[in-house]
Every structure is written in C-alpha cells, then in structure tokens.
Write a structure and sequence with these properties.
Length: 217
C-alpha cells in the first residue's frame, strides 16, 4: 500500500445519502373502511407535545389502513374530531427515513410553503384544492354560516361563474388557503356545490393537540 506524502489533505467520504421524498398535503388520500375511502390530504401537522408529525384530512374520511398517493406511503391513524363544527383527523406517516413530512401543500400547480394560519372572515376571497374539482376560489358567504353534518356549522364559500363547482366528492379534507396561509380544510358541499370547510382556528378554540407544522412550537 502506497503512503501519501506528509501534510496531504484528506477528505472523508461517508457515502451517498439518499434524498427522502416529501409527503405534503393536497394529494389523494386513499384507504379502506370509513365513510369515504378516497379524500384529499390537507396540511402537514405536528403535536404540541411529543414531537409527532403527520398529515390531516377530513374526519369523515377513512381512518383505517390509509395511504397517500403518489407515494403510496402508509398512514398510522392517530385521532379524529367530528363534532362542534369540526371535521378533522390526522395520521402519522410511516415510512422511516424514506419520507419526510414538510410544511407544504400542493395547490394544483406547485408545492407551497405554509407561512402561517389565519381566521376566516365573511366576504374574504380564499381558495381550496381537492383531487376532484382541483383548485377553486371564491368568497366566504357574508349572509350566513352554512349548516353541516357531524354537528355544528361550517363557513360556506359560494360558487361563481369561474368556479361553478367549489367542491365535490373526493375533495373532502383538502387544504383551504389564502396564498400561503392556511385557513381550513374542506368539509363538504351542498346541492349547489358551494364549499363548506372546517376552520383551522376551530382546532385551537377546541384545544386540539395538533397545529400546522409550520406553526407548532
């Protein structure tokens, strides 16, 4: 074995580190059992204690052996809330170091880095993304708060000429947002295809143990 001259610089090579796939909200959430087996993933979330991270969708969607496409990553159901104007659940992402849970969501064109959470305001212009009707935008109803299944009431986003269908089957759980700011998750629709959503602020007012990953201490 030949020897290197004295003072020759040597760099240590530890091998190639594989890049983990980012699992983000806005993609298809599929599973078996539950009321709806195909929905849309909402936002990536974290617990305030315990350091767990995962992904959310609507509470009425499947919560047994689910997975997120296109990665086919398996989910570990944690909790759901379907009461008092809430329709949310969350699961951990099971895939070891092959997957990373990022503070992003897909809006139909690109992955958006979540910058915060805000309250909804009547008359506010917001958007949502779901796997069926894709990205739609409209104004939150200024006249009334829409009724909803599963207890409580949910804010309503009205259809318009650009988006005659604000929501349809499969969109449930998808992210509702204003730019890069999270506002809510899709709850459902009425016969006129107006959108109803669970406000993210309802998570905090009802003391849920999770928050958007970007904003969880």
């Amino acid at each position: 074995i030949s020897e290197l001259p004295v003072d020759t610089p040597v760099e240590q090579f530890g091998g190639i580190i594989p890049t983990a796939s980012e699992v983000v909200g806005g993609y298809r959430y599929t599973g078996t059992g539950g009321e709806y087996g195909t929905c849309t993933a909402g936002f990536n979330v974290g617990t305030f204690t315990g350091g767990l991270a995962g992904i959310s969708t609507a509470g009425h969607c499947n919560n047994n052996s689910g997975h997120i496409d296109p990665w086919s990553v398996n989910l570990g159901f944690k909790q759901e809330w379907i009461t008092n104007g809430l329709d949310s659940q969350w699961s951990t992402v099971n895939g070891g170091s092959s997957y990373v849970v990022s503070a992003k969501f897909y809006d139909g064109n690109s992955k958006i880095v979540v910058s915060g959470v805000q309250s909804w305001v009547p008359g506010q212009y917001i958007c949502k993304f779901g796997i069926t009707t894709r990205k739609t935008c409209g104004y939150i109803d200024t006249v009334l708060t829409g009724g909803g299944a599963y207890g409580g009431t949910f804010p309503r986003v009205l259809t318009n000429s650009t988006y005659p269908k604000q929501s349809d089957g499969g969109d449930s759980g998808g992210p509702v947002f204003a730019g890069s700011v999270g506002v809510g998750q899709v709850h459902g629709r009425d016969p006129a295809y107006n959108l109803y959503f669970t406000p993210l602020t309802a998570w905090y007012s009802n003391s849920l143990p999770i928050g958007l990953l970007c904003c969880t201490p």
